[in-house]
Amino acid sequence: MSVIGLDLGTSGVRAVAFAADGRTLGGSSAPLTLRRDGRGRVELDAEEIVSAAEAVVRAAATEAAQRGDAVQAIGFSVLGEAVVPVDSSGDPLAPVAVSMDTRGIESAETLGARLGDGRFTAITGQPLHGMFSVFKIMAGDAAWAAAAAYRCIGDLVAERWSGVAAIDLGQAARTGILDVERGEWSEEILSAAAASAPWLRGEQLPVPVPSGSVIGGVQARAATLLGVDQGTPLIAGTHDQAAAFLGAGGEVGVRSVIALGSSDCLTVATRERPHGLEATGFASYRLDDATWITLAGTAAGGWALEWLAGLLGADVGEVFGALSENPPALIVLPYLAGSGTLDNDPSARGTVHGLTLDTSVPELARAVVEAAGFEFHKIIAALEAHGVRVDDLHVTGAGVANSAALAARASAAGTRMTPVAHDASARGAAMLAVRGIGGDPRRLLVAPDPEAVADPDPSSSAWYAAQRAAYVALYEATRGIGPHLTERHA
Fold first, then answer.
1. Mean per-residue pLDDT pooled into runs of 10, the chain (490 residues)
2. Sign of CA pseudo-dihedral 352, 353, 359, 362
């Protein structure tokens, strides 16, 4: 028995076929074209996503079949918040608005005021922020208002292949419309949104279903495109951060997970929904009946690395493969698309403090990496202050291959980090696929290499303690400038 974990991301898609014992049988990736208009719109093409997903699944399924282990199910790991309007045939009417698209900022403010202080978070488990799907729908133009339905990426793809419009509870939570306690679309949210967007109705949304449940079987035409048998079950996966948590071995009370991606994210699991987080910026949603996921995204992920590399006209690996050996006398606020969890300030702007004529590229590159560690330290402290324990940290994502960068993050954060396989999101999606067809998903986990563990450097602990304090102080000193710059940019 083999299954495919399909990771639908912002910058690309990846399908990996796993055997029942966790061995990788085949895999394929395809990039996606992220389009920015320079005025806050950040979009993907829905048809490009579907075509890419079909190509990578077909490639992975073919490799699995060639090894004598045909695919029995497909599970999903899906980028959060991205949404697209579709017509009655399921064809897109506009580009996909992704997470960092800023068109929903004013709508978020309007809905927050309409619902009252803290009510949005109480219902949805998510911070009030313009990133969520509901606010992009509310801010939509004529094409969005004319939509027959609205789809996020996982349910868009699954509906194309099975004919069933269903969305997992994790992805549904990231729309900003789900009542996370009840697992149903919130009539209160929909009613409040309708005052500005009368075109948004509950029947236009996919049906929320638990992760690991069967959505439907692959239809004949899709089976040909995907290289799998007709009727192969499509299994509801989850938000990519929850999928990475599963695939990296995350476990309640045992292990928390950092995923190094386009934006870095720390994920913690608890048995019950954490309370008292309404004003913190943390997001919580149900993974299954026994597990709640709480996550915090930083602004210091791959986008920041790609920005610096692009500015220098070099590859990410070239720039960040040559970090300075010693901590630099620099501080980078990596807020190139607003700040992350805790502040959730869309007007925040990036800052580099401490530049001199002697500053080198390796020093600047290390300072960008250290910023992620400073963000993680802030997040861990805030979680624990609210009674949410952060356990032994596993780290996944393409960035774990750079041991020097991981060590810099660990020292900046002041905590041990254990790297695990970078296909954690796809592996987590595959684990849910195994669960959906009655198998044991834990068999897919791979033990980390104990020799690769990154511990904080004790010789620089005093320096980093001072840098963490200075990092926070720099943001406080510059945050008042952000709105002015935002207005000029607009």
1. 94 95 94 90 96 98 96 97 97 95 94 93 93 95 96 97 97 97 96 95 96 97 97 97 94 92 89 83 89 87 90 94 96 88 82 97 97 94 89 89 94 95 91 96 89 94 97 92 68
2. negative
The CA distance from 426 to 420, in Å, is 13
For 17, the enclosing helix (H) or strand (E) is: strand 12-19
User: Which amino acid appears at position 135 of this protein?
Assistant: F
Beta strands in 172-306 (DSSP E): 178-179, 184-185, 207-209, 214-217, 233-239, 255-259, 265-270, 283-288, 291-297
The H or E element spanning position 271 is: none
Distance CA 76, CA 211 (A): 9
Alpha carbon 33 to its chain centroid, in Å, reads 17
d(Cα 24, Cα 27) in Å, to the nearest integer?
8
In contact, 413 and 260? CB cutoff 8 Å: no
d(CA 440, CA 445): 10
Q: From residue 212, how far is each of 80, 176, 252 by CA, in Å? A: 18, 21, 18
Q: Please choose, from the candidates 4, 127, 111, the residue with its C-alpha nearest in 3D space to the C-alpha of residue 54.
A: 4
The DSSP result for 74-136, as a single string, is EEEEE-SS-BEEE-TTS-BSSPEE-TT--TTHHHHHHHHHHH-TTHHHHHHSS-S-TTSHHHH
Q: How many Å apart are CA 276 and CA 333, to the nearest integer?
A: 27
* Cα separation, 225 vs 434, whole angstroms: 22
Asked whether the whole model's pTM tops 0.85, one would answer yes
Q: What is the length of the chain?
A: 490
Q: Which residues contact 128 (CB under 8 A, 6 or more apart)?
A: 108, 111, 112, 120, 121
**Rounded CA separation 349/336 (Å):** 6
Residues with Cβ within 8 Å of residue 83, at least 6 apart in sequence: 96, 97, 133, 136, 137, 150, 151, 152, 175
CB environment 387-400: b (16+ within 10 A), e (fewer): ebebeebbbbbebb
- Give the residue from 118, 432, 377 showing the smallest Cα distance to 264: 377
- On the CB side of 438, CA atoms within 13 Å amount to 0
Beta strands in 124-243 (DSSP E): 149-151, 166-168, 178-179, 184-185, 207-209, 214-217, 233-239
Q: What 8-state DSSP symbol labels residue 336? A: B
Tokens at residue 212, please?
A: 């690991």
Residues 82, 152 contacting (CB under 8 angstroms): yes
For residues 340-353, b (16+ Cβ closer than 10 Å) or e, as one string?
Answer: bbbebbbbbbbbbe
Q: Give residue 262's pLDDT.
A: 77
